[in-house]
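FAQ: What does a ligand-bound record look like?

Like this one, built around magnesium ion:
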Amino acid sequence: MKTVLIIDDSPTIRKLLAYILKKKNYIIAEAEDGMDAMEKLSHVQVDLVIVDLNMPNMDGIEFVKGLRDNYYYMDTPVIMLTTTKDEKLKKDAFEAGVNMFLNKPVQPGVLLYKVESFLQEGEDNGR
Ligand SMILES: [Mg+2]
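The answer part, i.e. the structure of the complex:
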């Protein structure tokens, strides 16, 4: 079973994403911002991260930079949720190590498809 870490400052969005993913039997870990997520990662092992861009304390880009500094999470798939059309921000996020963007509001089918394909790829690589 795979664990997905959901990081968003909106409890409603966390709840919605968790609901969608739990239907496919993913184990869910939740964090309310980047700082909280860093703390969670010190005691939970995760296979994929879904992270919001705009959050207090530590935003999505700062979080991903920190995540990629951790040897264990160098290749972990990261999906960033955003409403931004700011191309510079997106470029910064990709450079920080984000694998793909999904626009809010998230379509459940699209989310599941992306999560499944990232985790499948990981298995093909023998991870
Ligand atoms: Mg937010």
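Follow-up question: can I read anything off the structure? Yes, for example: The longest strand covers residues 3-7.
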